[in-house]
Structures are given as C-alpha cells and as structure tokens.
Specification:
alpha+beta, 4-stranded antiparallel beta sheet, single chain, 3-stranded antiparallel beta sheet, PH-domain like
Length: about 130
C-alpha cells in the first residue's frame, strides 16, 4: 500500500546520530570485550539500516510509517493519549501511547521537526495525565 504525499504532509529527515553513536560505543567496548562490542555494534548497524529505510510521515489525520515507498503502519491521531520525547539535551527515545497500545521508537529522525509535528498534530495528547 503506497500513498502520494499531499502539500500538507511532512516527511521527517533521517538523523544518523544515534546509530553512529551506538556503532562507536560498540567499537570502544570491543577493546575491552569483543563479544559485547560486537553485540552493541550490530545493534548500531540495525539502527542504521532502519534509519536508511524507514520514513515517518505526518499527515492531516495520522502518523504513517513507510519502509521505502510502502506504508507499513498508520497511527491515527484520534487514538493518541500521550506522547513524549525523552532526554531533551540529546533526544534518544520517542514514546507515544494509543488507546490500546504503547510505542517506543529510537530517535532516527530530525528531533526538532519531530517535536514541531507532534505539537502541531497531537497537542491534545501532550498534556500529562
């Protein structure tokens, strides 16, 4: 299932900070423990692949997740109850809760654009309970 973006849709630009930092930490850990370093480094490579292949698109009615040009998931804003971006100095994790589920996503996208889109489309879900 694909969708053509409209003029009001916003696609988030990728951010490679977290995947590259995790890969770097894995390389440093490999100096002390090769297996731990390899495990952390592989996780960093996984995050890098996700950054290269996934796109978040904010539409008028939902947050859509795409793998290349194929929509793999849609989260209607009407179902959102709360959202938060963790650790403001260096945003690393995006959390949001819907009526029936919760989601945690690493910040693989431009955090300032993510925050602006959330404040625009999901302001009602930002207030703490």
């Amino acid at each position: 299932m694909t969708s053509t973006p409209t003029a009001t849709d916003t696609d988030l630009s990728p951010s490679y900070r977290i995947p590259l930092a995790v890969i770097g930490i894995g390389m440093l850990l490999a100096l002390a423990n090769i297996w731990l370093g390899a495990l952390v480094g592989l996780f960093g490579v996984f995050l890098l692949v996700q950054t290269l292949t996934l796109t978040l698109r904010f539409t008028d009615s939902a947050l859509e997740v795409y793998r290349r040009d194929t929509m793999i998931r849609q989260f209607p804003y009407a179902d959102w109850q709360h959202w938060e971006i963790f650790w403001s100095p260096v945003p690393v994790l995006f959390y949001f809760r819907e009526v029936n589920s919760i989601h945690f996503l690493p910040i693989l996208f431009d955090p300032s654009t993510l925050r602006a889109c959330l404040e625009t489309h999901c302001a009602m879900a930002q207030t703490p309970e």
